[in-house]
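Batch manifest line 430
LIGAND: glycine
JOB: complex structure
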Amino acid sequence: MKAKIMLIGGGGREDAIARKIVENEGTLISVMPFENPSIKRLCNKFFIAGENDAEKIISLAREEKPDVVYVSPDSFLEKPIVDALQYSNIKVASPDTKAFQIESSKIFMRQLLKRFGIQGNLKYEIFYDEYDAGKFLDSQSNKEFAIKPAGLTGGKGVKLTDVHFRNRDEAKKYAASIISRDKKVIFEEKVTGEEFSLQAFTDGMNLSFFPLAQDYKRLMDDETGPNTGGMGSITGKEMLLPFIRRDNVEKAKDIVKKVIESLYSEGTMFKGVIYGQFMQTTSGVKVIEFNGRMADPEGINCMALYDGDLVETLLSLGNGNLKTSSIHFQNKASVLKYIVAEGYPDNPAPGKLKVNNKDLPEHFKIYYSSVKGSMEEPEMTGSRSLALLGIGETIEEASGIVETNLWRISGKYYMRHGIGTAASLKKKHF
Ligand code: AMP
Ligand code: GLY
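JOB STATUS: finished
ARTIFACT:
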């Protein structure tokens, strides 16, 4: 559909969104914090602005008069940018700060689930004082917890008492450091099992789900090392993953629907993409977190497979009239592997890459994330650089497609080659 879309954000996920907008005949106006070479070549115009440039973004939107604005990254959604755009009568396909609390405040999210008796909630405790937090940890010495800042963490602020610390004193110190920075900390009961990501478009009432996805969060192929922003991700055929039970998928869908209904019943219309992070445990499906945006990297897999008209979808989210019958995804599996600088995430040593983009096969895509320079010779940064995506009949085949195209990328980098391989799938807990 022909329409003018303003896309806010400049990472790999936004590159995937931008490609779909242009493929669906949208006119793309990009606002990004740095020059993403792929988005730059796709858009009609681009402007450089970060999440702290709210006024600039609002006045750009007023001048450009897009049919709809899509604000993509969490760092922008946390700021009252969507609120100000709506106040200026500009249509937006993203949640305002009130709706985005589902991600920006883990306390808001846990309390919402509790208030409405929504299944899947975890036991949790909030502490505002380091002495109380320490006393609690000592009194529960036989239990393990996830220690989390209440706000946005970029996937890196969560630590598990038995995994990330050698003893209770280290855990207490970590909790105290969060309290001294944020004035509060949240402890959740630690759960184990397979995680999965369930995303959906929603206009605040109607929902349309994306294919189920899984993010490979740990740095190393043996599932050790620090948690990262996500080293890669997989989706399977039939919108399912072979190791997540169908009844658990249905339960997770029900939880997402109830969250949207609960927000609505309290006067909050959540518009955009809602993304639940779940765990399949022996005692049912548990909510790990909720996000108010597309997942990165899982959102890239889903955009690559999106068969609907994204321009039309974004307009309908902005107008509050999502037609769920217009949302379709290709019935294929996909695997994404991120290229990062060696030493990522703690001590990245970014260098230059050489990329051969010539005659890319239909089932292999290269998305540009945090890189500078040209598409052929991108310079890496300390963050995730290129997302390589394969599409196939099976997850294993899609993983192999990424590997057979690696000759196209040269330079020093790190990647988890094991994402989506038969060996990695075998280790999953059904
Ligand atoms: P979050 O930023 O809340 O998604 O947490 C990052 C990662 O930490 C999750 O993807 C899980 O792997 C892990 N995690 C978070 N909360 C818990 C929990 N309560 N129990 C076990 N693992 C967790
Ligand atoms: N897949 C992790 C995130 O988007 O938060």
